[in-house]
Design a protein that fits this description.
This protein is α/β, with parallel strands linked by helices. It has one domain: Rossmann fold. The protein is built from 12 helices and 8 strands. Strands 1, 2, 3, 4, 5, 6, 7 and 8 form an 8-stranded mixed sheet that branches. The chain is globular. The N and C termini lie far apart (43 Å). Bound molecules: S-adenosylmethionine (SAM). S-adenosylmethionine binds next to α2 and β2.
């Protein structure tokens, strides 16, 4: 972990700990690295299942973790209206699991982008294992250039890191074919009063993200889509209990079961902070501060 960033975070004045901090691109990349640039096995072990989602899964009675990951991706596929031969973009592709699953199951080709270079070898090895037609690239969304327009774009719990969501939707519109679909899954504040009433627990969670949190209301997100000429297609409300199950019955269990190994990869403090952060998120969910939605919209 970079010590410059560690110092910046530990000594951040109180106003720098609030949501909606604006950074230049280099600083944003450094801050994202603070959370994501650890041994890839760290996130692989904690998230588990075949596809290693670092995002909420969708549960059905008796489903395994892998089935719950796939269930969510099948919803993404339905909302993007995937058909064989389409070309799709995963913004914030994590360790490649979601894109590889979609490409091999729905016979589409894909491109995944991330600003976390350590995730790329894991993603590429996975694509090879499944013979999936997809590529991965380390690039900030602002810098992405594509010779080919996409049929669909999706992101899963990534846009929280984007201060300039308006700019992201503008960029997505340029990258999409007319009539193409964009799908975003994200947590949303249930009321705008939460945006500025950030308590100690929320500050701790934002600190784990190196103060890159930009949680919004669903209404804010819909307004920005509308500003960028996206026509709303569907809003899927995922009960927040799905997130509690993902974290309590899997991520925390995995962390506790492999604590020694995770400590070797990082440090005792890192693992302890991570555990507190996971428990903190669950406490906020129980207090009904957040809702969880997948929003799809068409480029018109
Ligand atoms: C919470 S993880 C979600 C990963 C994946 N979508 C999943 O569901 O497993 C957030 C991801 O967003 C990526 N990310 C954050 N800011 C980004 C940016 N400006 N451009 C591209 N990717 C970004 C991170 O590198 C990380 O892979």
């Amino acid at each position: 972990m970079q010590s410059r960033m560690m110092d910046l975070i530990e000594s951040a004045p109180s106003e720098a700990r609030n949501l909606y901090q604006k950074y230049n691109m280099e600083e944003e990349i450094d801050r994202i690295a603070y959370h994501y640039e650890v041994d890839s096995d760290f996130f692989k072990i904690i998230t588990g299942g075949e596809w290693n989602h670092y995002s909420c899964c969708m549960w059905e009675e008796g489903s395994s973790l892998t089935q719950a990951q796939e269930r969510k991706l099948d919803e993404f596929a339905r909302m993007m209206n995937l058909k064989p031969g389409m070309h799709i973009l995963d913004v914030g592709c994590g360790w490649g699991g979601p894109l590889v699953y979609l490409c091999q199951k729905y016979k589409v080709t894909g491109h995944g982008i991330t600003i976390s270079p350590m995730a790329i070898p894991v993603a590429e090895a996975r694509a090879k294992k499944y013979n999936a037609q997809c590529t991965f690239e380390v690039v900030h969304w602002q810098e992405l250039r594509s010779v080919k327009q996409f049929d669909a774009i999706y992101s899963d719990e990534v846009i929280v890191h984007f201060n300039d969501l308006d700019g992201f939707f503008r960029k997505a519109s340029q990258l999409l074919k007319t009539g193409g679909i964009m799908v975003n899954k994200e947590l949303h504040f249930r009321h705008s009063k939460h945006k500025h009433a950030i308590d100690k627990l929320s500050q701790h969670i934002n600190k784990v993200y190196a103060y890159t949190g930009n949680y919004r209301t669903l209404r804010d997100e819909l307004d920005l889509l509308d500003n960028n000429s996206f026509q709303l297609e569907e809003i899927l409300d995922i009960p927040i209990s799905h997130y509690n199950k993902t974290i309590n019955e899997h991520w925390l269990k995995n962390l506790n079961a492999h604590r020694t190994m995770l400590t070797t990869m990082t440090s005792e403090k890192h693992v302890q902070d991570f555990k507190l952060y996971l428990k903190g998120i669950c406490r906020i969910f129980t207090a009904k501060v957040f809702g969880l939605h997948i929003v799809s919209a068409k480029k018109s």
